[in-house]
Design brief:
Blueprint: E1 3-10, E2 20-28, E3 33-40, H1 49-55, H2 59-62, H3 68-79, E4 83-86, H4 90-98, E5 109-110, H5 111-118, H6 127-134, H7 144-163, H8 167-177, H9 183-191, E6 227-228, E7 231-232, H10 237-241, H11 250-255, H12 262-266, H13 274-289, E8 291-297, H14 303-318, E9 322-326, H15 329-346, E10 353-355, H16 365-371, H17 379-392, H18 409-416, H19 434-444, E11 447-451, H20 452-460, E12 471-474, H21 480-487, E13 490-493, H22 494-504, E14 506-509, E15 512-514, H23 516-524, H24 531-564, E16 572-574, H25 577-580, H26 585-616, H27 624-647, E17 654-661, E18 666-673, H28 677-685, E19 690-695, H29 705-711, E20 718-722, H30 728-731, E21 732-737, H31 748-763, E22 767-770, H32 774-785, E23 794-797, H33 804-813, E24 817-821, E25 838-841, H34 852-859, H35 864-881, E26 892-896, H36 900-903, H37 907-913, E27 918-922, H38 927-939
Helix pairs in contact: 5-7, 5-17, 6-7, 8-17, 13-14, 14-15, 20-21, 22-24, 22-27, 23-24, 24-26, 26-27, 31-32, 31-38
Length: 940
């Protein structure tokens, strides 16, 4: 077979707007290069400065060059009857499709896909990084011919790499790809059957374990158990012998982080941070005497080390386990991959740390065995299965984060993620269950890192998910209330409820019956004594139409409410008392009662069937069908309880609402607690010796009252407010334009577009614009994309040019970028240095007042705006501001375009929530120039 590796250089990322400026291609076989193509193309428009700097192609180079159509015609001739190859080639293909040079039936072989399959643990799969790691020849990165030739070399290297895989793994992969004709299948079919003597490839993927070709899962690898939740190290037996010599006094513990401590000796660039020592001392003290401590530690404090050091000292010396809970995976990874390994190197004692996640983060080998032989619907599913096959030969923890799933892979993961319906319970062992392994590692650990969702789920299961612990550190604690609300939220929709009933019994026709109960009747061979199972089957078939009728009627009722409330902008109907008193509610409540009664009758029959099955099995561990039956029964009971509450007996401590989703008109019933503070206090904090809650944004105007009231902390809580070590007066400028239209006016979005464009043009990108509305983001994005004055700026929109992780990575890797993001960008984004010099906050981040949970909670307060809406928004603004200054040498500006911060009395609360930065008030047209001057002072 002949291949043609190709690459395009373009003026930007939009195939409809941008143009090709260079084409590179290499025609080759597995043995030799046949020919090369390198052509410049006149784009017929200016080339952005950022592209010129990246590629080295100047406007003069393109003068007199042929048109793009002429050059692409040459490329099309080369591709004829050959297999195209590219790296991250989706954008190249999009340009070729837009230009009419890509046949509909053509498929490209993407070395990015192959690299992700064969090298799942690589730090990066970008072409320059792989070229450097594998020693490929790429003298001019980002030039078309050099990138195309590097792609050719990479394909050959990956082909050889496939040949070095374990023989059983190769056999499994060959069997998997055999039925398919996709390009990826053809590559592996050929590469995996190469002679074994092709060896010695750097970064080989084999050797981690032995793969069974029948089952498609590894047996016990040689390295099994060498890692505890991703942190190298054996059990800390040596540390136990050193207990008596370990510091116990809080001051001595804090001094470990001081200028005379081991950290200062270990790090050549150590910086003494007084706030870090104060926090470490406070944490050590509260863990010693017991109590509750809330700490706001500004950016740059080093709060993770400030709580980890006293936590580890207490855990190892006293045998008192500490749980650290975070909100984001990003912080979990920082703790497990950076902070804890660093502590292991310089702390004078050993310890064990474990990362524990929710069940769905781990692969189920039971589900994987069933999924692997199923036919692949498309090439994307085949790539996923190949990736998992290789990954399973290497992984020690089975955690999905190692796979770095992309796009449709998220849906495929749901097919293999650990699920309680597939759990074998006591029959599972550490050797074949990653969930059991993770929990066993946590049982041995001194510090266990979890997220808020798992922390709260553990409470809901009576402590069965996390091993017993005495101390809790909640980082990113400003998310705790929302996380608790989410964990206690209940919902049920018609399709989901119907799906549960169909899993029990489906009366498809008179001679064809499927479902779990009929299968159990055949499997268990009850004979004449199977009446309880038969009765359960009849009850399931009777309950199904009642549920269908209820959700159809409720959807029609909800649509009428939305039609009548013409001022409503969302699709949620909160089930208020006055609605329940209307005449049209009575028949709906009666239908709900019928559905609840039918599910109750089914529940009674299922209980009888479960009891009979247990008796017939003689008390042994029940089989998988019986376990699934019990889980479904529990889920149906929860659904019936929610239906009864919402339609007949509402709990005054909960809020209920109906949502009609999209064009499908699927109705979802949801419920959430009105207040979670008492639940956190009684079920999470109550039994613990100490609780530390920390974040960069907990206080409003210097007070912790709002935060403490929301999470159930009373007068007993101790608080500590530590300022950031940054000099905000010198490093940050807050710009407040005095002439921006009202946020609700038609002139607001054009004003936002003009301001963002002016700043991005002057700063050559380096700007992040934060929106509170996806619709507003899309409108401003569309306007910016058509501005000629931004030709040399790469404009990225969240959800338009990719999801959060994709656009953030592109922003970080590009010289001149403008990024427009919504809620998920207001925090957790760390872009230090000159890459980000301006943050534009489009609107003050108030919650939508009609959102059901927010509205219900606001109604409980004497002054809902001052007690709830305002402090919540002020904390969010504080988070948004925090994206700007991440290091001591960062410098930049924040622009707040919402004029309410100047014209409303409450604007002062927002300004007081911000760090003490320099400020500029003036007309919008002068702000871009002011920021230019501000930043130029830093470079002078």
């Amino acid at each position: 077979m002949e291949y043609v590796a190709l690459d395009l250089e373009t003026t930007g990322l939009d195939p409809e707007r941008d143009r090709v400026i260079e084409v590179g291609a290499v025609v080759f076989t597995l043995d030799a290069v046949r020919t090369r193509l390198e052509r410049l193309a006149d784009p017929g428009r200016s080339v952005p400065d950022a592209v010129q700097r990246l590629t080295g192609i100047t406007a003069e180079d393109l003068t007199g060059a042929p048109t793009a159509d002429t050059v692409l015609t040459e490329l099309a001739d080369l591709m004829r009857e050959r297999q195209p190859v590219g790296h991250g080639a989706r954008l190249d293909v999009d340009f070729l499709v837009a230009a009419g040079f890509w046949p509909q039936d053509r498929e490209i072989l993407d070395t990015l896909d192959v690299a992700r399959i064969l090298m799942p643990g690589a730090a990066s799969h970008s072409l320059p990084v792989l070229a450097a790691e594998l020693g490929l020849d790429q003298p001019r990165p980002h030039r078309a011919l050099d990138d195309a030739d590097a792609t050719r070399q990479l394909l050959l290297r990956l082909r050889n790499l496939a040949a070095t895989l374990d023989e059983r793994l190769r056999e499994s992969m060959v069997s998997l790809v055999a039925p398919y004709s996709w390009a990826i299948a053809g590559f592996f079919s050929e590469a995996l059957t190469l002679p074994r003597e092709v060896v010695g490839v750097p970064g080989a993927a084999g050797g981690g374990g032995i793969l069974s070709p029948a089952a498609g899962v590894p047996t016990k690898p040689a390295s099994w158990g060498r890692y505890v939740g991703g942190v190298p190290g054996e059990a800390g037996g040596a540390a136990r012998d050193l207990r008596e010599g370990m510091p116990d006094d809080p001051s001595a513990v804090a001094r470990l982080l001081g200028p005379d401590g081991p950290l200062a000796s270990a790090l050549p660039d150590y910086e003494h941070r007084e706030a870090q020592l104060q926090m470490a001392l406070a944490v050590a003290q509260i863990m010693r005497r017991g109590g509750r401590l809330a700490v706001e530690a500004g950016t740059g404090t080093g709060k993770s080390l400030a709580y980890l050091v006293p936590a580890l000292a207490r855990a190892v010396r006293r045998d008192e386990r500490v749980v650290v809970s975070t909100h984001t995976h990003t912080l979990q990874e920082q703790l497990m991959l950076k902070d804890i390994p660093s502590l292991r190197r310089w702390l004078p004692w050993d310890f064990e740390a474990s990362l524990l996640k929710g069940r769905s983060n781990y692969i189920s080998l039971r589900r994987w065995r069933r999924y692997l032989p199923e036919p692949c619907r498309d090439a994307e599913e085949l790539k996923f299965k190949l990736k998992v096959l290789v990954w399973l030969s290497q992984t020690n923890i089975g955690d999905r984060s190692e796979l770095r799933l992309q796009g449709p892979e998220e849906a495929f993961w749901e097919r293999v993620a650990s699920d309680p319906l597939d759990c074998a319970g006591l029959r599972c062992t550490d050797e074949d269950c990653f969930v059991h392994r993770a929990r066993a590692a946590a049982e041995r650990a001194d510090v266990v890192v979890v997220n808020h969702a798992l922390l709260l789920a553990d409470v809901g299961t009576g402590g069965s998910l996390i091993p017993e612990y005495q101390h809790l550190v909640v980082d990113e604690a400003h998310h705790l209330e929302d996380a608790a609300t989410q964990s206690l939220r209940c919902e049920v929709d018609g399709p989901a409820l119907q799906g549960l009933l169909r899993r029990l019994a489906v009366d498809a026709s008179a001679d064809q019956r499927t479902g779990l109960i009929p299968e159990m009747r055949l499997h268990l061979h009850f004979g004449a004594s199977d009446e309880p199972l038969a009765a359960a089957e009849r009850a399931a078939l009777a309950a199904a139409p009642r549920c269908v009728e209820l959700f159809q009627a409720a959807a029609e009722w909800a649509r009428r409410q939305l039609t009548e409330e013409t001022t409503r902008r969302d699709e949620a109907v909160r089930l208020l008392g006055e609605l329940r008193e209307r005449a049209d509610w009575t028949p709906l409540a009666a239908q709900a009662g019928d559905a609840v009664t039918a599910i109750g009758a089914l529940d009674a029959e299922l209980r009888r069937a479960v009891a009979l099955s247990r008796e017939w099995l003689g008390g042994h561990e029940p089989d998988q069908d019986l376990r699934e039956l019990e889980v479904i029964r529990g889920q149906l009971a929860e659904a019936a309880d929610l239906l009864e509450q919402a339609f007949q007996r509402p709990d005054p401590n909960r809020v209920y609402w109906l949502t009609v989703q999209g064009r499908s008109s699927t109705l979802v019933l949801r419920s959430a607690p009105l207040e979670v503070g008492h639940l956190l206090r009684e079920q999470v904090f109550h039994e613990l010796h100490s609780v530390v809650l920390t974040s960069a944004s907990l206080a409003v105007g210097g007070s912790f009252d709002y935060f403490c009231s929301r999470v159930g902390l009373g007068a007993e809580v101790e608080t500590l407010l530590l300022p950031s070590p940054f000099d905000y007066l010198d490093q940050a400028l807050v710009c407040l334009p005095t002439d921006v239209p009202e946020p609700q006016s038609e002139e607001f979005e054009p004003a936002v577009e003009g301001m963002v464009a002016d700043v991005a043009r002057r700063l050559r990108g380096r700007t992040l614009a934060l929106f509170t509305s996806h619709n507003q983001l899309r409108n401003v994005y569309a306007g910016l994309k058509h501005r000629r004055d931004l030709d040399d700026v790469l404009i990225l929109g969240q959800g338009l040019d990719g999801q959060r992780r994709q656009v953030l990575r592109t922003f970080e890797e590009s010289d001149r970028s403008l990024l427009l993001g919504t809620s998920s960008f207001w925090e957790g984004v760390d872009i230090p240095g000159d890459q980000l010099s301006c943050v534009v906050i489009v609107r003050l981040p108030f919650s939508v007042p009609t959102e059901p949970v927010f509205a219900a909670r606001a109604e409980q307060l004497r002054d809902p705006f001052l007690q709830y809406a305002l402090p919540q928004a002020a904390l969010r603004l504080k988070q948004g501001f925090g994206r700007l200054i991440r290091r001591r040498d960062d410098r930049g500006a924040v622009i707040i375009l919402d004029n309410r911060i100047l014209e409303r009395d409450y604007g002062r609360a927002f300004l007081e929530a911000l760090p003490p930065a320099s400020r500029y008030l003036g007309p919008a047209r002068g702000i871009g120039r002011k920021i230019e001057e501000w930043l130029s002072l830093a470079s002078d």
